[in-house]
């Protein structure tokens, strides 16, 4: 199974005050909060970790059909960040998901799968998101995510 998540950074800046008291504690483990606090760009790290959790959760929910989202139960580890790419793992309910993230000035996008081979063999399409246009559904993507101005589709 595969999951993906995209965060429009300008939309996130408008909608979420991640610096408010208690926000990080609700979503991130102590180790993840440490990564945020020591990051060169803490805001990017917040949304990177968030997309890692969301994409792994979506992959897990597709497989198990269980939809109970508790962000602090998903644990991001082995996070390696480069200027435009990040990798890491997410542990959730006894399973490990490999993640691969694209970091741009406009968005952060993450793909998660239990198998690394899947991450290298998929097709990704990121485009402008138009809420009134659902034509993309007829293309049968394996995973869909949208936020703000962006739509991310994964094809296997």
Automatic annotation (TrEMBL):
Transferase recorded as keyword: yes
Keyword Transferase: yes
Domain 4'-phosphopantetheinyl transferase: 2-85
Keyword annotations from UniProtKB, A to Z: Transferase
Highest taxon above the source species: Bacteria
InterPro entries: 4-PPantetheinyl_Trfase_dom, 4-PPantetheinyl_Trfase_dom_sf
GO terms of molecular function: holo-[acyl-carrier-protein] synthase activity; magnesium ion binding
Protein name: 4-phosphopantetheinyl transferase family protein
């Amino acid at each position: 199974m595969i999951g993906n998540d995209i965060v429009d950074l300008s939309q996130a800046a408008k909608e979420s005050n991640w610096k408010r008291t208690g926000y990080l504690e609700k979503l991130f483990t102590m180790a993840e909060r440490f990564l945020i606090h020591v990051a060169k760009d803490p805001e990017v790290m917040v949304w990177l970790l968030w997309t890692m959790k969301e994409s792994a959760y979506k992959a897990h929910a597709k497989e198990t059909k269980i939809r109970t989202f508790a962000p602090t139960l998903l644990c991001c580890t082995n996070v390696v960040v480069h200027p435009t790419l990040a990798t890491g793992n997410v542990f959730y309910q006894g399973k490990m998901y490999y993640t691969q993230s694209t970091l741009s000035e406009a968005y952060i996008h993450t793909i998660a799968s239990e198998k690394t081979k899947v991450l290298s063999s998929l097709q990704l399409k990121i485009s402008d998101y138009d809420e009134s246009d659902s034509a993309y559904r007829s293309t049968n993507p394996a995973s869909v995510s949208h936020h703000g101005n962006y739509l991310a589709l994964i094809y296997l």
